[in-house]
């Protein structure tokens, strides 16, 4: 059971058998607690800010199972962004523009 607390709003996520279910509410027996703003958690999850850096900055506090916290964050990694622009000279290379 993972739990995130923001001000007085609570959300809990249960990881079980390869599935994740999240709902509003508080669970007294969480294994890991993330306390901080949604932006702080998003910086860790999507901007690859290390958990330790977020904790050191005071933007996110994690209590409980640290290994589980890292595993939870890793569930949401984003793919590498596509290039912003493809030059016309690149068409035909590496499958670009090929049928």
TrEMBL record:
SUPFAM superfamilies: SCP-like. This is SCP2 sterol-binding domain-containing protein. It comes from Sphingomonas chungangi. The lineage of its organism: Bacteria, Pseudomonadati, Pseudomonadota, Alphaproteobacteria, Sphingomonadales.
